[in-house]
Amino acid sequence: MASNSLLFLCTGNSCRSQMCEGYAKQLFPDEWTILSAGIEAHGKNPRAISIMAEDGLDISAQESTVLSDEMIEQTHYFVTVCGHADEHCPVLPPGKIRIHWPLPDPAKATGTEEEITEQFRAVRDEVKQRMYALSAELLDEA
């Protein structure tokens, strides 16, 4: 297990964890392994892809995957991005580091198209802010 591995976990691996993966791949050096997964796989959310493109990141090639034992074995840092994933995250082996970010689920946003889009932007902006802080912290430790 390399200490330079990071996995973002949410319920369906369609929005929040995908956004995190996109920013992490931009902010961390190439020698870092960056993954995202879900307790389930719900497929990629087109709004998440669109809202990230607004900020210059193309996450359309990322996959919606289910957390596997192999991922757990190979990853050092785990970031759960919702309460459901935090509660259902498997017990991690000793030495693994788990961080929890209680991000709202933009896929559950309601209202007009504009209001839903604004909720996606708000989550994206919070993810971006948290990713900049996390990358500064973890890269400083490395």
Structural overview:
This protein has 142 residues and is of the alpha/beta class. It has a single domain (5-141), classed as Response regulator (Rossmann fold), CATH 3.40.50. Helices cover 44% and strands 14% of the residues. It is built from five helices and four strands. Helix 1 (16-27) crosses helix 5 (113-141) and helix 2 packs across helix 5 (113-141). The longest helix has 29 residues, at 113-141. The model has no long low-confidence stretch (mean pLDDT 92).
Principal-axes shape call: globular
CATH superfamily: Response regulator
Determine the N-to-C terminus distance: 15 Å
Count of strand segments: 4
Tell me, what is the CATH class?
Alpha Beta
The biggest sheet, with number of strands, parallel, antiparallel or mixed sense and barrel status, is: 4 strands, parallel
Give the number of domains.
1
Q: Compute the average pLDDT.
A: 92
The gyration radius over C-alpha positions equals 14 Å
* Order of strands in the sheet with most strands: 2-1-3-4
Give the fraction of residues assigned to helices: 40-55%
Point out poorly predicted stretches.
Answer: none
Strand content: 5-15%
CATH topology: Rossmann fold
Distinctive features:
142 residues, alpha/beta, Rossmann fold, 4 strands, 44% helix, 14% strand, globular
